[in-house]
Amino acid sequence: MPRLLALSILLAAVLASTACRADTAPANVISSAPHDAAAFTQGLLFHDGMLYETTGKHGRSTLRRVDPATGNIHAQQRLPARYFGEGLARIDDKLYWLTWKAGEAFVFDAASLELIGRRRYTGEGWGLTYDGAHLWLSDGTDTLRVLDPSDFGVVRRVQVRRNGRPVDRLNELEYIDGEIWANVWFDDHILRIDPDSGAVLGRIDASGLREALPGDSNAEAFNGIAYDSDNDRVYVTGKYWPRLFEIERSP
Ligand SMILES: [Ca+2]
Question: What's the gap in Å between 20 CA and the centre of ligand 1?
Fold first, then answer.
């Protein structure tokens, strides 16, 4: 290859890589608290001073109300063993809990954690959040489904792209002040997504959080984002992570 051509290719690669990194900021930790290291965290949200968390695995899928300061579980519900629990969202006094492959979501009373309804949907269920009008569902692909909460009918679909390229394996979701934040399965970055275009507005690199986990922990995928809108606080954790972190919203 002529030297000039090789240099041009190298320069283009460096510029592309710099452009990619420019949208990424590290997660700045404000504080941390205990988190159940046996929790295969799927859904996480904050409501009225408490965390609501769902866990997965057949026979071990739970919905919990958790004290964010101590990690203590104040109330808990279980799913029958044939269901694999997934993401969680709240609308007013109701919690909506997805399952992975059963095509079924369960509706719980947020105060009593009693089962009060069911919804059907097609395909897989991974993450779920509520933007004030609609539910947003991820299913492990690059495309989020916007749902009518009353019947889970699809209102529209939004493909998520970063620098023009689709990003798949979208997982846990959180609606934060006009943006959709998303975990990516087996990636330590949070994506901040424009709900209208699906464009990634920026990324938060949370890989540094692992350094604060005990060396002997069985920490798996980074997963779980919860937003306390009253106090503008963001909480994150992961599957089997023994710590919950509060991070700065605007790194
Ligand atoms: Ca969430």
Answer: 25
Q: How far is the CA of 21 from the centre of ligand 1 (A)?
A: 25
Q: Per the domain annotation, does 6 fall within a domain? A: no
Q: What is the pLDDT of residues 33-54, one digit of tens each?
A: 999 999 999 999 999 999 999 9
User: What are the Cα distances from residue 212, in Å, to 31, 114, 196, 242?
Assistant: 11, 36, 35, 10
What range defines the domain where residue 241 resides? 31-247
Provide the domain count of the chain: 1
The two structure tokens encoding residue 224: 């779980």
Tell me the CA–centroid distance for residue 176 and ligand 1, in Å. 10
Q: Which amino acid would we find at residue 236?
A: V
Structural domain contains residue 220: yes
**CATH number (domain holding residue 138):** 2.130.10.10
- Ligand 1 centroid to Cα of residue 141, in Å, is 17
Distance of CA 43 from the midpoint of ligand 1 (Å)? 5
- C-alpha–C-alpha distance, residues 231 and 228, integer Å: 6
Tell me: the pLDDT tens digits for 213-241? 998 899 999 999 999 999 999 999 999 99
